[in-house]
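Hi there, hope your week has been kind to you so far. Please have a think about how the structure follows from the sequence. I've dropped the whole record in just underneath, so have a look:

_____
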Amino acid sequence: MLQHTANLIDVVPGMLVLAVDEVAHSVPGWVTVLFGFILFAMIAALALEEKIHAKKSIIVGAFAGLCLILATVLKLLVFGPVELPGPEPHDFINLPVYIPSIDWGVITIILGASLFVEVTSRSGVFTWMAISLTRKSGGDPWRLLIFYGLLTVLFSAVLNNVTAMIIIGSLTTVSLKKLHRSELMLGFLLTEGLLTNVGGLLTLISSVPNIIVGKAAGISFGKFFIVAAPYVAVSTIVTLLMAKKIFGIKALTSDEDKAEAKRMVDSFDPSESIPSQRFFWFSVVSLGAFILCLAGQSALPFGLDKLEMGFVALFFAGVVLIAYKNEVDKFYSAVDWDLLAFFAALFVVIHVMEHALVLDVIGRGIATLLTLPRPVDSTVLLVSSAVASSVTDNIPLAAMLAQILGGLGTDAASPYWWCVIFGANLGGNITPIGSASTVVAMTIIQRQKLGLTFIGFVKAAVPFAVVQIILAVVYVLIAV
Protein backbone atom coordinates (compact mmCIF):
# COMPACT_ATOMS: atom_id res chain seq x y z
CA MET A 1 0.00 0.00 0.00
CA LEU A 2 1.08 3.57 -0.69
CA GLN A 3 0.20 6.47 1.58
CA HIS A 4 -1.00 9.82 0.27
CA THR A 5 -1.61 13.06 2.16
CA ALA A 6 -4.04 15.57 0.65
CA ASN A 7 -2.56 18.92 1.64
CA LEU A 8 -1.98 21.56 -1.03
CA ILE A 9 -2.36 24.75 1.00
CA ASP A 10 1.37 25.50 1.09
CA VAL A 11 1.96 24.41 -2.50
CA VAL A 12 -0.14 26.81 -4.55
CA PRO A 13 -1.33 29.76 -2.45
CA GLY A 14 -4.82 30.97 -3.31
CA MET A 15 -6.17 27.67 -4.61
CA LEU A 16 -9.35 26.22 -3.19
CA VAL A 17 -8.38 23.06 -1.36
CA LEU A 18 -10.30 20.30 0.31
CA ALA A 19 -10.23 20.59 4.09
CA VAL A 20 -8.48 17.29 4.61
CA ASP A 21 -5.11 18.36 6.02
CA GLU A 22 -2.97 15.50 7.16
CA VAL A 23 -5.65 12.93 6.28
CA ALA A 24 -3.92 9.95 4.72
CA HIS A 25 -5.62 7.14 2.90
CA SER A 26 -4.46 3.85 1.48
CA VAL A 27 -4.82 2.99 -2.16
CA PRO A 28 -4.47 -0.62 -3.37
CA GLY A 29 -1.81 -1.13 -5.99
CA TRP A 30 -4.28 -2.44 -8.57
CA VAL A 31 -6.24 0.83 -8.33
CA THR A 32 -3.14 2.86 -9.11
CA VAL A 33 -2.38 0.59 -12.06
CA LEU A 34 -5.97 0.93 -13.31
CA PHE A 35 -5.84 4.73 -13.27
CA GLY A 36 -2.38 4.68 -14.81
CA PHE A 37 -3.86 2.69 -17.68
CA ILE A 38 -6.71 5.22 -17.98
CA LEU A 39 -4.19 8.07 -18.19
CA PHE A 40 -2.32 6.20 -20.93
CA ALA A 41 -5.59 5.52 -22.77
CA MET A 42 -6.51 9.23 -22.65
CA ILE A 43 -3.15 10.22 -24.12
CA ALA A 44 -3.57 7.60 -26.86
CA ALA A 45 -7.07 8.91 -27.63
CA LEU A 46 -5.74 12.44 -27.95
CA ALA A 47 -3.04 11.17 -30.27
CA LEU A 48 -5.76 9.62 -32.44
CA GLU A 49 -7.98 12.71 -32.29
CA GLU A 50 -8.21 13.01 -36.07
CA LYS A 51 -9.19 9.37 -36.54
CA ILE A 52 -11.74 9.46 -33.72
CA HIS A 53 -13.29 12.61 -35.21
CA ALA A 54 -13.86 14.13 -31.77
CA LYS A 55 -12.82 17.44 -30.25
CA LYS A 56 -10.15 17.23 -27.56
CA SER A 57 -12.58 18.65 -24.99
CA ILE A 58 -14.98 15.75 -25.62
CA ILE A 59 -12.18 13.18 -25.39
CA VAL A 60 -10.76 14.50 -22.13
CA GLY A 61 -14.23 15.26 -20.80
CA ALA A 62 -15.27 11.63 -21.27
CA PHE A 63 -12.18 10.44 -19.41
CA ALA A 64 -12.80 13.03 -16.67
CA GLY A 65 -16.32 11.65 -16.19
CA LEU A 66 -15.01 8.08 -16.12
CA CYS A 67 -12.33 9.03 -13.58
CA LEU A 68 -14.82 10.78 -11.31
CA ILE A 69 -17.22 7.83 -11.37
CA LEU A 70 -14.52 5.24 -10.68
CA ALA A 71 -12.86 7.40 -8.02
CA THR A 72 -16.19 7.86 -6.25
CA VAL A 73 -17.06 4.15 -6.37
CA LEU A 74 -13.58 3.26 -5.10
CA LYS A 75 -13.80 5.96 -2.39
CA LEU A 76 -10.68 7.82 -3.53
CA LEU A 77 -12.18 11.30 -3.31
CA VAL A 78 -12.93 13.26 -0.19
CA PHE A 79 -16.38 14.84 -0.23
CA GLY A 80 -17.45 17.66 2.03
CA PRO A 81 -16.87 21.37 2.63
CA VAL A 82 -14.04 23.10 0.79
CA GLU A 83 -11.71 25.32 2.77
CA LEU A 84 -11.15 28.84 1.52
CA PRO A 85 -7.59 30.11 2.06
CA GLY A 86 -7.35 33.00 4.49
CA PRO A 87 -6.66 34.00 8.09
CA GLU A 88 -8.11 32.10 11.02
CA PRO A 89 -10.86 31.13 11.48
CA HIS A 90 -11.02 29.40 8.10
CA ASP A 91 -14.14 29.67 5.98
CA PHE A 92 -15.75 26.67 4.32
CA ILE A 93 -18.05 26.39 1.33
CA ASN A 94 -19.94 23.46 -0.20
CA LEU A 95 -18.88 22.77 -3.79
CA PRO A 96 -19.05 19.76 -6.12
CA VAL A 97 -15.86 17.74 -5.71
CA TYR A 98 -14.69 18.47 -9.26
CA ILE A 99 -14.88 22.28 -8.90
CA PRO A 100 -11.78 22.69 -6.66
CA SER A 101 -10.02 20.16 -8.90
CA ILE A 102 -9.79 22.79 -11.63
CA ASP A 103 -7.02 25.39 -11.65
CA TRP A 104 -9.29 28.37 -12.18
CA GLY A 105 -6.27 30.65 -12.40
CA VAL A 106 -5.32 29.09 -15.74
CA ILE A 107 -8.94 29.10 -16.96
CA THR A 108 -9.46 32.78 -16.13
CA ILE A 109 -6.10 33.77 -17.65
CA ILE A 110 -7.00 32.06 -20.95
CA LEU A 111 -10.54 33.51 -20.96
CA GLY A 112 -9.47 37.03 -19.98
CA ALA A 113 -6.42 37.17 -22.27
CA SER A 114 -8.39 35.78 -25.23
CA LEU A 115 -11.16 38.36 -24.80
CA PHE A 116 -8.63 41.15 -24.28
CA VAL A 117 -6.69 40.26 -27.43
CA GLU A 118 -9.89 39.79 -29.45
CA VAL A 119 -11.21 43.26 -28.50
CA THR A 120 -7.93 45.17 -28.75
CA SER A 121 -7.26 43.61 -32.15
CA ARG A 122 -10.28 45.58 -33.42
CA SER A 123 -8.34 48.77 -32.66
CA GLY A 124 -5.61 47.72 -35.07
CA VAL A 125 -2.95 47.71 -32.35
CA PHE A 126 -1.74 44.17 -33.08
CA THR A 127 -1.79 44.75 -36.83
CA TRP A 128 0.16 47.96 -36.26
CA MET A 129 2.74 46.11 -34.14
CA ALA A 130 2.95 43.24 -36.65
CA ILE A 131 3.41 45.56 -39.63
CA SER A 132 5.98 47.64 -37.74
CA LEU A 133 8.00 44.51 -36.91
CA THR A 134 7.62 43.28 -40.47
CA ARG A 135 8.93 46.59 -41.81
CA LYS A 136 11.86 46.39 -39.38
CA SER A 137 12.67 42.92 -40.73
CA GLY A 138 12.79 44.24 -44.27
CA GLY A 139 10.50 41.41 -45.29
CA ASP A 140 13.20 38.84 -44.49
CA PRO A 141 11.48 35.72 -43.00
CA TRP A 142 14.56 34.65 -41.02
CA ARG A 143 14.98 38.07 -39.45
CA LEU A 144 11.26 38.13 -38.65
CA LEU A 145 11.53 34.74 -36.93
CA ILE A 146 14.38 36.10 -34.79
CA PHE A 147 12.29 39.13 -33.82
CA TYR A 148 9.28 37.03 -32.86
CA GLY A 149 11.39 34.38 -31.15
CA LEU A 150 13.08 36.93 -28.89
CA LEU A 151 9.74 38.62 -28.22
CA THR A 152 8.24 35.27 -27.25
CA VAL A 153 11.01 34.56 -24.73
CA LEU A 154 10.71 38.08 -23.28
CA PHE A 155 6.91 37.91 -22.97
CA SER A 156 7.07 34.41 -21.46
CA ALA A 157 9.56 35.62 -18.87
CA VAL A 158 7.49 38.57 -17.66
CA LEU A 159 3.96 37.34 -18.41
CA ASN A 160 2.49 33.86 -18.20
CA ASN A 161 3.18 31.53 -21.12
CA VAL A 162 -0.46 31.37 -22.20
CA THR A 163 -0.84 35.13 -22.56
CA ALA A 164 2.51 35.34 -24.35
CA MET A 165 1.45 32.69 -26.87
CA ILE A 166 -1.93 34.33 -27.50
CA ILE A 167 -0.36 37.74 -28.20
CA ILE A 168 2.60 36.49 -30.25
CA GLY A 169 0.37 34.09 -32.21
CA SER A 170 -1.89 36.99 -33.17
CA LEU A 171 1.06 39.09 -34.35
CA THR A 172 2.56 36.19 -36.32
CA THR A 173 -0.57 35.39 -38.31
CA VAL A 174 -0.99 39.05 -39.29
CA SER A 175 2.66 39.48 -40.34
CA LEU A 176 2.92 36.34 -42.47
CA LYS A 177 -0.40 36.98 -44.19
CA LYS A 178 0.73 40.51 -45.06
CA LEU A 179 3.95 39.09 -46.51
CA HIS A 180 2.02 36.38 -48.43
CA ARG A 181 4.15 33.77 -46.64
CA SER A 182 1.40 31.73 -44.99
CA GLU A 183 3.33 28.54 -45.83
CA LEU A 184 5.78 29.51 -43.05
CA MET A 185 3.06 29.99 -40.44
CA LEU A 186 3.24 26.43 -39.07
CA GLY A 187 6.98 26.69 -38.46
CA PHE A 188 6.67 30.12 -36.82
CA LEU A 189 3.79 29.17 -34.50
CA LEU A 190 5.35 25.85 -33.47
CA THR A 191 8.70 27.50 -32.76
CA GLU A 192 7.02 30.21 -30.69
CA GLY A 193 5.07 27.60 -28.73
CA LEU A 194 8.32 25.79 -27.88
CA LEU A 195 10.07 29.03 -26.95
CA THR A 196 7.37 29.92 -24.42
CA ASN A 197 8.61 27.07 -22.22
CA VAL A 198 12.23 28.16 -22.71
CA GLY A 199 11.34 31.74 -21.77
CA GLY A 200 9.42 30.36 -18.79
CA LEU A 201 12.77 29.36 -17.31
CA LEU A 202 14.23 32.84 -17.20
CA THR A 203 13.00 34.09 -13.82
CA LEU A 204 11.71 32.67 -10.55
CA ILE A 205 8.17 33.91 -11.28
CA SER A 206 8.02 32.92 -14.96
CA SER A 207 6.21 29.64 -14.22
CA VAL A 208 4.49 27.92 -11.29
CA PRO A 209 7.05 25.03 -11.13
CA ASN A 210 9.79 27.66 -10.79
CA ILE A 211 7.98 29.21 -7.83
CA ILE A 212 7.28 25.86 -6.15
CA VAL A 213 10.78 24.41 -6.50
CA GLY A 214 12.52 27.75 -5.94
CA LYS A 215 10.62 28.27 -2.70
CA ALA A 216 11.38 24.74 -1.47
CA ALA A 217 15.08 25.11 -2.31
CA GLY A 218 15.39 28.66 -0.99
CA ILE A 219 16.56 30.05 -4.36
CA SER A 220 16.36 33.85 -4.51
CA PHE A 221 15.05 35.79 -7.53
CA GLY A 222 18.51 37.09 -8.39
CA LYS A 223 20.19 33.71 -8.01
CA PHE A 224 17.55 32.07 -10.18
CA PHE A 225 18.06 34.59 -12.98
CA ILE A 226 21.86 34.35 -12.86
CA VAL A 227 21.75 30.55 -13.12
CA ALA A 228 18.96 30.30 -15.72
CA ALA A 229 19.80 33.20 -18.07
CA PRO A 230 22.84 31.64 -19.84
CA TYR A 231 20.88 28.47 -20.58
CA VAL A 232 17.86 30.42 -21.85
CA ALA A 233 20.10 32.49 -24.16
CA VAL A 234 21.85 29.45 -25.64
CA SER A 235 18.67 27.38 -25.94
CA THR A 236 16.84 30.24 -27.68
CA ILE A 237 19.62 30.63 -30.27
CA VAL A 238 19.79 26.87 -30.90
CA THR A 239 15.99 26.58 -31.19
CA LEU A 240 15.85 29.41 -33.74
CA LEU A 241 18.68 27.89 -35.80
CA MET A 242 16.97 24.49 -35.75
CA ALA A 243 13.68 26.09 -36.82
CA LYS A 244 15.43 27.82 -39.69
CA LYS A 245 16.76 24.51 -40.99
CA ILE A 246 13.82 22.19 -40.20
CA PHE A 247 11.06 24.52 -41.45
CA GLY A 248 13.02 25.97 -44.35
CA ILE A 249 12.86 29.56 -43.08
CA LYS A 250 15.60 31.09 -45.18
CA ALA A 251 17.13 34.53 -45.20
CA LEU A 252 16.89 36.55 -48.40
CA THR A 253 20.24 36.40 -50.18
CA SER A 254 19.99 38.00 -53.59
CA ASP A 255 19.86 41.76 -54.00
CA GLU A 256 16.82 41.33 -56.21
CA ASP A 257 14.87 39.42 -53.51
CA LYS A 258 15.87 41.93 -50.84
CA ALA A 259 14.85 44.86 -53.02
CA GLU A 260 11.51 43.22 -53.84
CA ALA A 261 10.84 42.46 -50.18
CA LYS A 262 11.76 46.02 -49.21
CA ARG A 263 9.40 47.42 -51.84
CA MET A 264 6.65 45.22 -50.44
CA VAL A 265 7.11 46.14 -46.78
CA ASP A 266 7.62 49.82 -47.60
CA SER A 267 4.15 49.76 -49.11
CA PHE A 268 2.70 48.54 -45.81
CA ASP A 269 1.04 51.31 -43.85
CA PRO A 270 0.89 50.52 -40.12
CA SER A 271 -1.97 52.98 -39.68
CA GLU A 272 -4.17 51.59 -42.46
CA SER A 273 -5.93 49.17 -40.09
CA ILE A 274 -6.62 51.78 -37.40
CA PRO A 275 -10.34 52.65 -37.54
CA SER A 276 -10.19 55.15 -34.69
CA GLN A 277 -7.18 56.98 -33.31
CA ARG A 278 -8.88 57.40 -29.95
CA PHE A 279 -9.69 53.69 -29.58
CA PHE A 280 -6.21 52.82 -30.88
CA TRP A 281 -4.46 54.82 -28.16
CA PHE A 282 -6.93 53.57 -25.59
CA SER A 283 -5.93 50.01 -26.59
CA VAL A 284 -2.22 50.86 -26.53
CA VAL A 285 -2.50 52.23 -22.99
CA SER A 286 -4.63 49.24 -21.95
CA LEU A 287 -2.12 46.79 -23.44
CA GLY A 288 0.77 48.49 -21.69
CA ALA A 289 -1.09 48.51 -18.38
CA PHE A 290 -2.15 44.88 -18.92
CA ILE A 291 1.44 43.72 -19.47
CA LEU A 292 2.72 45.87 -16.60
CA CYS A 293 0.11 44.54 -14.15
CA LEU A 294 0.75 40.92 -15.17
CA ALA A 295 4.50 41.33 -14.91
CA GLY A 296 4.26 43.03 -11.52
CA GLN A 297 1.18 41.22 -10.24
CA SER A 298 2.96 39.89 -7.16
CA ALA A 299 3.93 43.47 -6.20
CA LEU A 300 0.51 45.13 -6.62
CA PRO A 301 -0.32 47.35 -3.61
CA PHE A 302 -3.25 47.28 -1.17
CA GLY A 303 -3.39 43.49 -1.19
CA LEU A 304 -4.44 43.41 -4.86
CA ASP A 305 -1.76 40.80 -5.52
CA LYS A 306 -4.04 38.29 -3.81
CA LEU A 307 -6.52 38.57 -6.71
CA GLU A 308 -3.90 36.84 -8.93
CA MET A 309 -3.27 36.96 -12.68
CA GLY A 310 -6.62 35.52 -13.72
CA PHE A 311 -8.43 38.49 -12.23
CA VAL A 312 -6.01 40.91 -13.94
CA ALA A 313 -6.78 39.29 -17.31
CA LEU A 314 -10.55 39.35 -16.75
CA PHE A 315 -10.47 42.91 -15.41
CA PHE A 316 -8.68 44.28 -18.46
CA ALA A 317 -10.94 42.27 -20.75
CA GLY A 318 -13.89 43.98 -19.07
CA VAL A 319 -12.25 47.40 -19.43
CA VAL A 320 -11.75 47.12 -23.20
CA LEU A 321 -15.17 45.49 -23.70
CA ILE A 322 -16.72 48.78 -22.55
CA ALA A 323 -15.85 50.14 -26.00
CA TYR A 324 -18.21 47.55 -27.51
CA LYS A 325 -20.75 47.44 -24.70
CA ASN A 326 -23.69 46.95 -27.08
CA GLU A 327 -22.20 44.05 -29.05
CA VAL A 328 -20.15 42.05 -26.55
CA ASP A 329 -21.88 38.85 -27.70
CA LYS A 330 -19.66 38.92 -30.81
CA PHE A 331 -16.58 38.62 -28.63
CA TYR A 332 -18.10 35.98 -26.36
CA SER A 333 -18.79 33.83 -29.40
CA ALA A 334 -15.15 34.21 -30.48
CA VAL A 335 -13.86 32.62 -27.25
CA ASP A 336 -12.38 29.14 -27.75
CA TRP A 337 -14.74 27.30 -25.41
CA ASP A 338 -13.34 23.95 -26.57
CA LEU A 339 -9.93 24.96 -25.23
CA LEU A 340 -11.39 26.06 -21.89
CA ALA A 341 -13.44 22.87 -21.56
CA PHE A 342 -10.35 20.82 -22.43
CA PHE A 343 -8.31 22.42 -19.64
CA ALA A 344 -11.11 22.09 -17.09
CA ALA A 345 -11.54 18.38 -17.86
CA LEU A 346 -7.77 17.81 -17.89
CA PHE A 347 -7.42 19.33 -14.41
CA VAL A 348 -10.15 16.99 -13.15
CA VAL A 349 -8.33 13.97 -14.60
CA ILE A 350 -5.03 15.05 -13.04
CA HIS A 351 -6.75 15.63 -9.68
CA VAL A 352 -8.13 12.09 -9.70
CA MET A 353 -4.70 10.75 -10.74
CA GLU A 354 -3.24 12.43 -7.67
CA HIS A 355 -5.76 10.72 -5.40
CA ALA A 356 -5.18 7.40 -7.18
CA LEU A 357 -1.45 7.91 -6.46
CA VAL A 358 -0.49 7.72 -10.13
CA LEU A 359 1.51 10.95 -9.81
CA ASP A 360 2.85 9.76 -6.47
CA VAL A 361 4.21 6.60 -8.10
CA ILE A 362 5.78 8.70 -10.85
CA GLY A 363 7.35 11.01 -8.26
CA ARG A 364 8.63 8.20 -6.06
CA GLY A 365 9.92 6.32 -9.07
CA ILE A 366 11.91 9.38 -10.06
CA ALA A 367 13.14 9.76 -6.46
CA THR A 368 14.67 6.28 -6.55
CA LEU A 369 16.85 7.45 -9.40
CA LEU A 370 18.73 9.65 -6.95
CA THR A 371 20.49 6.53 -5.67
CA LEU A 372 22.32 6.21 -8.99
CA PRO A 373 25.98 7.29 -9.17
CA ARG A 374 26.81 10.81 -10.25
CA PRO A 375 26.46 12.29 -12.84
CA VAL A 376 23.98 9.63 -13.96
CA ASP A 377 21.55 10.58 -11.17
CA SER A 378 21.21 14.23 -12.28
CA THR A 379 20.87 13.24 -15.93
CA VAL A 380 18.19 10.64 -15.30
CA LEU A 381 16.33 12.92 -12.86
CA LEU A 382 16.14 15.76 -15.39
CA VAL A 383 15.16 13.54 -18.32
CA SER A 384 12.59 11.55 -16.36
CA SER A 385 11.08 14.78 -14.96
CA ALA A 386 10.74 16.06 -18.52
CA VAL A 387 9.13 12.85 -19.77
CA ALA A 388 6.72 12.74 -16.83
CA SER A 389 5.70 16.39 -17.25
CA SER A 390 5.02 15.83 -20.96
CA VAL A 391 1.99 13.66 -20.18
CA THR A 392 0.72 15.19 -16.95
CA ASP A 393 0.44 18.53 -15.18
CA ASN A 394 3.92 19.75 -14.25
CA ILE A 395 2.61 21.68 -11.23
CA PRO A 396 1.70 18.73 -8.95
CA LEU A 397 4.70 16.82 -10.33
CA ALA A 398 7.06 19.68 -9.41
CA ALA A 399 5.38 19.96 -5.99
CA MET A 400 5.87 16.25 -5.26
CA LEU A 401 9.48 16.21 -6.39
CA ALA A 402 10.22 19.36 -4.39
CA GLN A 403 8.67 17.72 -1.32
CA ILE A 404 10.72 14.56 -1.89
CA LEU A 405 13.96 16.50 -2.32
CA GLY A 406 13.18 18.57 0.77
CA GLY A 407 12.42 15.43 2.77
CA LEU A 408 15.79 14.01 1.80
CA GLY A 409 17.49 17.11 3.19
CA THR A 410 18.79 18.15 -0.22
CA ASP A 411 21.17 21.09 -0.01
CA ALA A 412 20.05 24.36 -1.62
CA ALA A 413 23.15 24.28 -3.84
CA SER A 414 22.37 20.78 -5.14
CA PRO A 415 21.86 20.43 -8.93
CA TYR A 416 18.83 18.20 -8.20
CA TRP A 417 16.62 21.27 -7.76
CA TRP A 418 17.62 22.56 -11.18
CA CYS A 419 17.07 19.14 -12.73
CA VAL A 420 13.43 19.34 -11.61
CA ILE A 421 13.08 22.98 -12.75
CA PHE A 422 14.50 22.32 -16.23
CA GLY A 423 12.70 19.00 -16.61
CA ALA A 424 9.29 20.29 -15.51
CA ASN A 425 9.44 23.23 -17.92
CA LEU A 426 11.08 21.65 -20.97
CA GLY A 427 8.96 18.49 -20.79
CA GLY A 428 6.06 20.65 -21.98
CA ASN A 429 7.69 20.75 -25.42
CA ILE A 430 7.43 17.01 -26.04
CA THR A 431 3.65 16.76 -26.54
CA PRO A 432 0.90 19.30 -27.30
CA ILE A 433 -0.65 18.63 -23.88
CA GLY A 434 2.64 19.02 -22.02
CA SER A 435 2.01 22.67 -21.18
CA ALA A 436 -0.79 25.21 -21.42
CA SER A 437 1.13 27.30 -23.97
CA THR A 438 1.69 24.38 -26.36
CA VAL A 439 -2.04 23.61 -26.14
CA VAL A 440 -2.74 27.23 -27.08
CA ALA A 441 -0.17 27.07 -29.91
CA MET A 442 -1.82 23.90 -31.21
CA THR A 443 -5.22 25.58 -31.03
CA ILE A 444 -4.01 28.57 -33.07
CA ILE A 445 -2.44 26.20 -35.61
CA GLN A 446 -5.70 24.29 -35.99
CA ARG A 447 -7.69 27.54 -36.20
CA GLN A 448 -5.48 28.55 -39.15
CA LYS A 449 -6.24 25.14 -40.73
CA LEU A 450 -2.57 24.19 -40.96
CA GLY A 451 -3.30 20.47 -40.62
CA LEU A 452 -1.11 19.54 -37.64
CA THR A 453 -2.26 16.50 -35.64
CA PHE A 454 -1.23 15.33 -32.16
CA ILE A 455 1.26 12.87 -33.67
CA GLY A 456 2.41 15.52 -36.14
CA PHE A 457 3.16 17.89 -33.28
CA VAL A 458 5.17 15.23 -31.43
CA LYS A 459 7.18 14.39 -34.56
CA ALA A 460 7.94 18.04 -35.21
CA ALA A 461 8.59 19.03 -31.59
CA VAL A 462 10.61 16.08 -30.27
CA PRO A 463 13.85 17.02 -32.09
CA PHE A 464 13.68 20.48 -30.48
CA ALA A 465 12.79 19.06 -27.07
CA VAL A 466 15.59 16.47 -27.21
CA VAL A 467 18.21 19.11 -28.05
CA GLN A 468 16.87 21.49 -25.38
CA ILE A 469 16.93 18.73 -22.75
CA ILE A 470 20.44 17.62 -23.75
CA LEU A 471 21.62 21.23 -23.46
CA ALA A 472 19.97 21.42 -20.03
CA VAL A 473 21.68 18.21 -18.87
CA VAL A 474 25.09 19.46 -20.03
CA TYR A 475 24.47 22.87 -18.48
CA VAL A 476 23.42 21.41 -15.12
CA LEU A 477 26.44 19.07 -15.02
CA ILE A 478 28.91 21.80 -15.97
CA ALA A 479 27.58 25.09 -14.65
CA VAL A 480 25.25 24.38 -11.73
About this structure: Residues 1-24 have pLDDT under 50 and may be disordered.
